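Let us work through a complete example step by step.
Step 1: write down the sequence.
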Amino acid sequence: MFLGANHLIFKNAESLRENMTPAEMVLWGRLKGSQLGVKFRRQHPLGIYIADFYCHQHKLVIEIDGAIHLQPEIELKDIERQKNLEADGIKVIRFKNESVFKQIEEVLKTIKDVISSPFRGSGGLTKRIIPCLDVKDGRTVKGVNFVDLRDAGDPVELAWNYSAQGADELVFLDITATHERRKTMVELVKAVARQINIPFTIGGGINEIADADALLNAGADKISINSAAVRNPALIDELAKAFGVQFVIVAVDTRQVGNRNLVHLNGGRIATEKETFNWILEAESRGAGEILLTSMDHDGTKGGFDNSFLKIVNDAVHIPVIASGGAGSVQHFVDVFEKTNVDAALAASVFHYGEILIPDLKEVLRQNNIEVRTI
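Step 2: predict the structure and record it as tokens.
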């Protein structure tokens, strides 16, 4: 979770990691490796800010203040920054250098107390609504379990419409089986980037650095990999290293086989022996910035999300989880946020065919004390 931080913020954060202050180094020595039972990241980008330490699981920022923070103008900026972060549902706690040096056990106790009863604001961090557009031969299509595909419209037109409605992000999944795929998708990305001002992700057919590079340079905000990552897990490491974890979403298609959730490939048609839960943990450890988890048993059925499994996954990882597969009503979105606390929910046909309008959906979410972005 990076709150839309751009590549310059990430470069600055990388530089700061190499030049930590003595107090930061002392505290990092007690936070790293999940020593407090949760994972912290150091010098973590959040929008236009860089947090000294950040825990995604508890939406917690820790700041270490040196003498410069006593200056009035710096103090005012700190107050403004804290207000902005708390408006996004993030708790901020601050310690002075001398507290870290002389009272480290008290500092750690304060952090543990906050973790034991996490602050999530009124309803928590703003939840994201993400329409997904499956694109085949330049047209948006949708079917049940990725078969029986129907035409759902022009992807650029739909993208503009969703942006105007208040969608928070978009995902385009290319299911075209052609050698011209990359060229076709680059042209689509350029066309979409000219029309919308919200982040969008491109997935499908990304097998190497060059594929991702072409799409990101054309204007995509993130790329999503699925089957290619399962076949070559090192691809996650390579993409995260080349572009940064904030650009890499690992999409996982899961289906229940007996009493196990197994990773499936090719739109859920090919089973693997990989346990879905273990694969998601591996993807996170390799550098995935987000997980897009689709239940193929629920996908296209409009019977609701797989909330039980989504909660298991969301409670275990320290990166955002996007729920996918099964949305059929506004109540399904309320349920997935209330029951699992995932960061985002994705759907396709209910949006494409006007069965759910995003402004109406967001109004119901607000009525249920679930925070969403307004336009």
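Step 3: interpret the result. The two ends are 21 Å apart (CA to CA).
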